[in-house]
Amino acid sequence: MKEIDINKEIEATLNSLDGLQRVKAPEGFYERLQARMQNQAKPSGMWVNILRYSAAAMIILSLANGYLLFQNDSEEIASANIEDFTAAYFDDNTTLIEY
Amino acid sequence: MSEAEFKEIVVTYQDRVYNTCLGFLKNEGDAEDMAQEVFITVYNSYDTFLGKSALSTWLYKIAMNKCLEEIRKRNSQKRSDDDSYSGISENAFYHPGATLENKERSSILLGAIAQLPEAQQTAFTLSKIDGLSYEEISKVMNKTMGSVESLIHRGKSKLQQLLRNYYEGN
To answer: Nearest CA to B71 among B39, B119, B108?
Structure first.
């Protein structure tokens, strides 16, 4: 290409974006955006299942814990009653003769 | 932000945001994805928008930053693939808004704009593709009007050089 032609071509290329039309967003842009936002907000199926199993395990462990605590308390009350009874009726300072 | 408010913003600005993303990314699918990301960011951070600038300026800023981030990612990938390249890309992108007679030349120009340094590329894209005034560009880029003028001027000189190399080689 000749020098003059090159200069003309450069000038024409530099001006080639003049009068460029603004492009419209594709049809259904808002609907696709909404769908994407809803998908992002929804946790994936795998995580939902993990959460479900974790919650179930927590509930089972809490119930087992509560049951064991209740059992210990009952045993302590029972043994405390026997000790009270022994102290009242068989006090170290008393003998059978005194009864 | 209510759904109705959000829808109004999207419907009002979707063309402008899409057009900006297309100007930077030069791919229709990528531009739609990016425009959606821009609006998701707007939805999530609308409370932080103080209204100091116009809503359109804020939207252009978000779009510009996200596109530049994507371009940086692409460039670093390209650099690791091929270190030697420094001319106008042969992967032609025909802007759908270009007139038929300018289709080929505008594609070459867009390829050349992509070779400019980031700030010059941004100023040129906002000016030539989005049709923003220097004042609007200065607000979006957080620069003075003088800086924007200088960026466009230097960008034009660099483009002339790139185009000369291109036409002399073809």
So the answer is: B119
